[in-house]
Specification:
By secondary structure, the protein is mainly alpha-helical. The protein has one domain: VKOR domain (de novo design (two linked rop proteins), Up-down Bundle), CATH 1.20.1440.130. It has five helices and two strands, in the order ααββααα. A two-stranded antiparallel ribbon has the order 1-2. α1 packs antiparallel against α3, α1 runs antiparallel to α5 and α4 packs antiparallel against α5.
């Protein structure tokens, strides 16, 4: 390794950010009631039912700073999609901001996963997928540094 960020980690970050952006956009659209959680054009494995993911989108834990967690996720993924190809994510001052933001998403994800498993007892595949994406993104950002 020559100290240069690897192309494979950049591709992985962009791919994960795209998937995360799609999931968070879906959650945001449901949270603001722009679409129904069981919309027919959403793939069946992603559709929310009233007893699962849809019930948590409207819970108090689904908001940070008064906005849906998913909206913050959208901003994070867009920042990654802009920062990775431009190299911003690797610039010293910005790198710390990206890693810190990513670490905060992982910490929030740990709390939300605990909440899903033990408080609301909802098995939300999209939520768990998002939390896993955030963990991998964090690890990739750390190893890039």
């Amino acid at each position: 390794m020559t100290g240069q960020p690897s192309v494979s980690t950049a591709i992985a970050l962009v791919a994960l950010s795209l998937v995360g952006l799609l999931i968070s956009t879906y959650f945001t659209a449901v949270a603001y009631r722009w679409i129904r959680p069981d919309t027919r054009w959403i793939p069946a494995f992603c559709r929310m039912s009233d007893q699962s993911c849809a019930s948590i989108v409207f819970s108090p834990r689904a908001r940070v700073l008064g906005v849906p967690n998913s909206l913050l996720g959208q901003m994070f993924y867009v920042a990654l999609l802009l920062g990775v190809p431009t190299g911003l994510v690797d610039r010293p001052g910005w790198q710390a901001i990206y890693v810190t933001a990513s670490m905060l998403t992982v910490l929030l994800g740990i709390f939300l996963t605990y909440s899903l498993l033990f408080l609301t007892r909802v098995r939300c595949v999209l939520c768990f997928t998002s939390h896993a994406i955030n963990l991998v993104v964090f690890l990739l950002l750390v190893i890039r540094g």
